[in-house]
Amino acid sequence: MEMELERRRFKKMFPRLSEEMETEDNRYKISSVRSDVSVAERASAKRFDNYLPDAVDYIRRCDSVKQAEEIVEYLERRREITGDYAQKLRKQLKAKGVRSFGPKKQDDYYSRAE
């Protein structure tokens, strides 16, 4: 009984949080627990093994629209992206700016444990 009262009180105080907790959308499976920090960091870093950054990954490292346009031009010239995709990227850059692709990725993005 007391547990139910606490649950109702929590729902009343934090309706959105309560809703999020009750849906399946925001659940993450924990596959392991590590007590040794160095082992945990190595395991976390392995998720980017053999990962090949795409155009958006490169754009997210840019500080300005001009830098991002240079990246798009370079990738298009090397045929790593199609002309159509390059145009879509340029259009989004012009209309919404470089941060519309996501927050800036720092130099150590792939080596940090997130």
Structure overview:
This protein is an all-alpha fold and 114 residues long. The chain has a domain at 55-101. The protein contains six helices and no strands. It has helices spanning 2-13, 15-22, 37-45, 55-59, 65-77, 83-96. Helix 1 (2-13) crosses helix 2 and helix 5 (65-77) packs antiparallel against helix 6 (83-96). It is elongated. The relative contact order is 0.11.
Largest sheet: none
Helix/strand/pairing category: mainly alpha
Q: Could you tell me the radius of gyration in angstroms?
A: 21 Å
How would you state the average pLDDT, rounded? Answer: 80
- Unreliable spans: none
Overall geometry comes to elongated
Instruction: Specify the helix fraction band.
Output: 40-55%
User: How many runs of DSSP E, i.e. beta strands?
Assistant: 0
If helices are DSSP runs of H or I spanning 4 or more residues, what is the number of helices?
6
Taken in chain order, the helices and strands follow as HHHHHH
Residues in β-strands, percent: under 5%
| First-residue to last-residue Cα separation | 39 Å
